[in-house]
Amino acid sequence: xxxxxxxxxxxxxxxxxxxxxxxxxxxxxxxxxxxxxxxxxxxxxxxxxxxxxxxxxxxxxxxxxxxxxxxxxxxxxxxxxxxxxxxxxxxxxxxxxxxxxxxxxxxxxxxxxxxxxxxxxxxxxxxxxxxxxxxxxxxxxxxxxxxxxxxxxxx
Length: 155
Hints:
The strands form 2 sheets. This protein has a 3-stranded antiparallel sheet, with helices on one face. Strands 4-5-6 form a 3-stranded antiparallel sheet. It is built from 5 helices and 6 strands; from the N terminus they run αβββαββαβαα. By secondary structure, it is an alpha+beta fold. Strand 4 and strand 5 (about 110) form a beta hairpin.
């Protein structure tokens, strides 16, 4: 194995192998045989025993999980970016004193932020889309409702 791996990667794999053989226990470990920027393998290693139960070798199976690890890292980065974007949006909404309405058009349920409730004089944070429509400008209402219907229509 040493001729196929960078020295630090070989040392880590060899240490895991020694640990399995010394402890006699099954081990599952992520291994980086090409170094930290290369492929990633999920390896399961167990001791190979002779008829008397002594450890005489090692049995291992490895699965290349590089794509999964990259996808997980991408998902973490995307979640972090989304969280940061949401924080910036909430800051901007607060500074601008904007009312926000989270609308579930399928159920007609609407959740209104504190500023929106202050603007419309509503006490409860929950209302209905029908009630929100009462505040649409008459000239805008048909276009808004057509947009809503288009959003709900199947492709």
